[in-house]
Amino acid sequence: MAHYLPRSSLVLAQILSMFIPLVVASPDPAAMTYNVVSLGAKADGTTDSTQAFVSAWTKACGSTNPAMIYVPVGRFYLRQVVFNGPCNNNAIIMSIAGTLVAPSDYKVLGNTANWLVFEHVDGVTISGGILDAQGTALWACKASGNTCPAGATTLEFSNSNNIVVSALSSLNSQMFHIVVNGCQNVKMQGIRVTADGNSPNTDGIHVQLSSSVTILDSKIKTGDDCISIGPGTTNLWVENVECGPGHGISIGSLGKDQQEAGVQNVTVKTVTFTDTQNGVRIKSWGRPSNGFARNILFQHAIMMNVQNPIVIDQNYCPDNKGCPGQISGVKISDVTYQDIHGTSATEIAMKFDCSSGNPCSNIKLEDVKLTYNNQAAQASCNHAAGISTGFVQPTSCL
Ligand SMILES: *[C@@H]1O[C@H](CO)[C@@H](O)[C@H](O)[C@H]1NC(C)=O
């Protein structure tokens, strides 16, 4: 990935090695590995290891060479950890063989927005590991109607570039599992998200104000959106994802703010939705905004008993406040649905409920087959224009 040696020193090393072979050896790679246990972490699941992780990060981030933080097998109890940059190198790998465990008492993280957060970093890879946020007590509190803290996002990357996350599992997050905010060039592969289908606000992966984010080969079971795509997301690629239970893959909610960055160039392909509330959804508030969503491709999706397989809803307005005339300012255009098959759990499998002030334009349907109770499902359109080609069932209402 990154070049961490200045080119001049590489050339110098090559020249020197011609004359004095073996003297200019590369440094011992072990010297740049920081094992959290050597720094005082305990793998017993109860001893607070926060300080050991902070020490490991301080050393890795301060290193002028590439560095590795190693977390061995075992359970490591951590309060909030902020992995802050900028760092002195742009090649830090956190290799996790074990499990990081959040406090089971939700009052410890309380209203802290995040549990594990990387900020202002460049070139960080997280490989492996389980993040166990122990969110069940907070969900129960929220379900009881008592006053509870909002809860923390499990893992957030904020204002960072060149991030890789692979083979990571996130379990029972208090709030969102993974958030990508204000980042460029993020690749996530082999992510597993697991939480109860009734757990509140436990979105799997949320992306906003970010570009060139790729999410591949992941399985997400949770209580809210499997993937949610917020304002300011551009060049997002999602491929080979299994979603369910959950609320599907959503662009939105958009248009909450009057001034809002748009969503552009999003590809969602080869996804399976099982028993989800939605399949592929675009959702905006019914209120004034300069936001938009355009150049969106939903391709090769399988719907299995999905309540709203294809849906655009521009009338979102919880509590019916601040939505004059329910007219969304968000402009939705150039959205393609290609090769979408399967079963709907409701009669209306395809719903385009667009803004009366800003109708959806250039919606394209190609090779869609959605059934309800072994019969053709139905479609409903409001203020939506576009075309359909190939076999399209339910019959298009565009
Ligand atoms: C759209 O995004 C993809 C990555 O998801 C990128 O490869 C492509 O260049 C982008 N297209 C445009 C026109 O920016």
TrEMBL record:
Active site, UniProt feature: H247
GO molecular function, one term: polygalacturonase activity
Superkingdom of source: Eukaryota
Signal peptide annotation: 1-25
Protein keywords: Cell wall, Cell wall biogenesis/degradation, Glycosidase, Hydrolase, Secreted, Signal
A Pfam family the protein falls into: Glyco_hydro_28
Localisation: Secreted, Cell wall
UniProt xrefs under Gene3D superfamilies: Single-stranded right-handed beta-helix, Pectin lyase-like
Similarity-based family: Belongs to the glycosyl hydrolase 28 family.
Listed name of the protein: Polygalacturonase
Organism the protein comes from: Castanea mollissima
